[in-house]
Amino acid sequence: MSVGNVGKQREKTKDSSAKTKQKTLFGFFSKIPNVKQEKSDSTLSSSSNHDSNHDTPADVDNSSNVNKNSSSPERELPTSPSHHANTEIDSSSSMLPPPSSDPFSSPLSSSLHRSSPKRPHDSLGEESPGKLLRTSVKQEPDSEEEIDSPTKKKSFKSLDTSIFQAEDQFRHPVSSKLENSELSEVDKPFIASRRSRKPVSYAESDEDEDFDDAPTKGSRHKRIVSDDESDDYVEPDHISEASSEASLPIDEVESMDEDVDGYSDHSVSVAAPIPKKESRKESSNSLYESYRLGSQIASPSPSVSGSASPTKSNKNGVLNREEKRRQRMEAFKKENNERYEWLLDVRDADQNRVGDPNYDPRTLYIPPSAWATFKPFEKQFWKIKKDLMDTVVFFQKGKFYELYENDAAIGHQVFSLKLTDRVNMKMVGIPEASFDYWASQFIAKGYRIARVDQLETALGKEIKDRQRTQKEEKVVQRGLTQVLTSGTLVDEAMLTSDLSTYCMAIKESLQSDNEEPSFGICFIDTSTGGFHMCEFTDDIHRTKLDTLLTQVRPKELILEKSKISQKSIRAIKYCVSSSSIWNFIKPYTEFWDNERVEREIIAGDYFKNGLEGAPKILKSYLSEKPLAISAFGALFWYLRQLKLDKDMCSMGNFDEYDASQQSTSLLMNGQTLKNLEIFSNSFDGGSEGTLFHLLCRCVTPFGKRLFHTWLCHPLRSGTAINARLDVVELIADNPVIRDTIWGFLHKLPDLERLISRVHAGRSKPADFVRVLEGFQRINSAFDQLREEFMEVAEGTLLGEIIQSAPNMKEELEAWTRAFNWQKASEEGVFEPEIGFEAEYDTSQKYQSELKNELYALLEQYKKQLRCSSLNFKNIGKEVYQVEVPSDVKVPVNWCKMSGTKKTNRYYNDELRKKIKKLLEAEELHLAIMSRMQEKFYIRFDSNYEQWLALIKYTASIDCFFSLSQAAAALGEPYCRPEIIEQKDGHLYFEELRHPCINASAASTFVPNDVVLGGESPNMIVLTGPNMAGKSTLLRQVCIAVIMAQLGCWVPAKRASITPMTSIYTRLGANDDIMSARSTFMVELSETKKILDECGPKSLVILDELGRGTSTYDGHAIAYAVLHHLVSNIGCLGFFSTHYQSLCVDFMHHRQVRLMQMAAAVDEKIRRVTFLYKLEDGICPKSYGMNVASMAGLPEKVIDAAEEKASELEQASASFINASDDIALMSDFLQVLRISKSIEPLTAVNIPLILDSFE
To answer: Which domains, ranges and CATH numbers included, belong to the chain?
Structure first.
């Protein structure tokens, strides 16, 4: 046939099917993505290293000889409109059909047709065809843009040749004459069915042989994205290139990616802060609720991308699109149910179902039949995940961390991470560089985080595989390296507070609820590695436990399942934060006893010489305090699960914790700490407005932690208090000393936490340099203090600290000669100085020789090609490519790797061999550097005790500095308290103010004089109107005493005190629903503790005792308690009340002083003006009606209330004046009869009982 006839025949054919052509063309071209022109090096590093290859379609001509494992297609990046500015096609073109969704975008086809080949354009985006073709074919590249690379060739070769014919027609307008013509078989573009897809599984495969090298800087390649394989997300541009390059390279064995789900949209927006979701509330244990209280572990569910609108069946009765889609979904669901039946019927490792009393939500049962079907990566994943079902597992794959199944659902629902439905498993992912950020976000929500890392690099695996003699599964080695919880964080970047974060184990021994329990306690601050242990017998109200928990405020608790009483659980709930994590672990097997602890210590080699090398406190507790050792055993087991047991125990940092320290410190129980708002306020539980917030002005984080301990235990000895006051006064009066201390303190990092990371061998090189620089600064400061201020500081605590601090000058100088500090700080690598380490020097020399050989080879090529402009170019992981001008001919055995308009880049066999030798040498050098890091840390840790002592001394100086700064911030007047050592208690404050009143209110605050003890009465009975300032006065006296005994100035014109042994408070009115205790019962319980424990040198504050019951009972109880305090105990204190008759009862008692808070009252308008002044006398009324008027109650209601009040006052006058009648009418005597086991009340013994209160 002639050429003309062929043309006519083709024209006729095209005339008959133009519409068919348009639909067919669009069906293909709408799947081809636009070429991205991003040139960001950091994006290149992240995206190119997480790519995986795909199989060449069966329809492609095999003569292309393209190695199906050689390409490394780029990931498609999120684009902005600006990316297409130069590639858009005229929207008015008749060839551009309206956008529509892909009717074959369902994921079901992969599970139904696993044997079919994969279509070449699977998972391509739905970009405009015009954009694609203009960018990929017609657009002229810039001078330095990539125009040729094997990857790009692979992308085009994977398409049928008819694509280019269709493309050519698309680029050139078609006449209207041809619009309705039908395409011939030759012209029809290749459009593979969605069913043509290779077998896939739920996760990415590790089975491939093409390793990638470490990424390097270079311009961004412009490539067509041919598949959306193992990279399910793209690292955003803001992730630095340095951090990306420092990461492990992607698995060589992952790049085949059998688990690819090409139809899914895998891109993820990450690393930007996620807006808070209002629908999810923060809870004490979000993870537990997610797995235990929420739905069971979700079965995988398919997702269908796009919206396929149903179409009618054709004339031949073929199923329409909707029916096919329904069939595919049913088959997909059936396959998942068959393969993952154990995810639908959830059981724990012991095969207990959800709801069973013994069900353990931490584990999952996987039947043996399921293991037989798993691929190597699946086995690796489930082997770890099955024991961490209550934990969100971050699984490293190359430069990304991925979350699967329920973990992925949490990431998607709570943090809006992009969710991808695999065939059997949902997945979300984050870049490796942003792990710390996302881990912190999950932990802040109450989740437990597990980190599974690659334990070898891709090149390292290749070297290891060559050394193997037997065939093994091709999967990169991974292992559980960390489990992170809010109570056991160790990384400085994740810790949100400078204060200690504790994880506490509690062991209880109790025979019955009515007996006094015994407790063993062990808690640890994992950021510093400090263990604290104690054992004690408590009262039935758990007073000591309450005090300890209030002081420590643990973030995480470990309790023995079914072995701790409900009373103790209620006491713990009352003291700890609602966000605290509760862990109930199994007795014996997990909550270890003495014998098991001893065996584990010996077997685990935690201390030098085994048990003999253990700290003294631990050895003594092993033989004497079994409850405390059992608590340590539980904590020991828990730390082992978190991979922290070796790091923490081997430090040997153990001490005994005494919550009361009765012999040396001022005792404040938990109730007092809460009532006085020492560490947490009553508003939101935060530190704003607390005494700690006011006084703690420490500069260093470790100084703040020590100051917290000081405030928990103010001093009791007058000598010790005066010694502290001397140092505070010295610093406050000497600006040069103050400036010197500030000068070296404010530049210090958190050395206490950092050296614990060095001990664990997990410190970064840059952090290690910070440690050394910090100790250099401290050592220099102590040298300066010794030289310049020893004379003025001699004889004070400051002088003792300066003299006692170890001098580490020689050791620090040795470290300056050990390695390059600048390189370690900036590049994160240890480079020993020449001659310091022979192995390192040899390896470094070998690398230099190999590089010299490469450059010698380059010089040889320059001569061979007679071109002096040849040079090496690194493109991604393809390093040392020979870059040659495009007009220079090269030998036929040179393989072109990439190129630009002006240059081409090549490899040859000789060059490849030398590059491989260099890369292997670099890999071995990294191993040597890793060993060097370990050697450095072991050497530093050999002086751990000296470093720690230097930190403690520095922290003490910081605390003294804080007290001097706090005193100056109090405002005038403030003074140094006078400490008087005498037998009887005494308090004197002139013009005392509340220290926590802010500066704006300080000028209007009314100061008061307070005198207790000595020549004055021990107890002040205080009356006054509501809102007159009674409670504020009571609190400010207690806080002034605490400040004085802490060693701080007090907000008064003059102060003189005898050191108190304890402070007890009973303030406010609250019930305890959890313990089934009414307001009155809570009042009496707290009062009972005070009566049991207070002594002559105790300061007692009782606010409106008796208001929780009837007037008569309340008055009787208040009378009896007050009488016992002033007549039998003799303590100092305040007793505020609204019972004016109580003042009459004690009007002539020599140890009671009657005082009131003054107020001016206008009866006509019912207005009360509070004067806030403490003066002698009894307030005649509480002026409740006046306060009611101020609150806005209706006048009619207030008038009626006044009339009723007058009637009640008259009716009760005779009752109040008759003590015998009070005793007879009150239930209080019945309470006494029960508690004291006295005989039944009779007319004879009632007067005797009443006499006991006089």
So the answer is: 502-659 (3.30.420.110), 696-808+943-969 (1.10.1420.10), 838-938 (1.10.1420.10), 978-1110+1118-1182 (3.40.50.300)
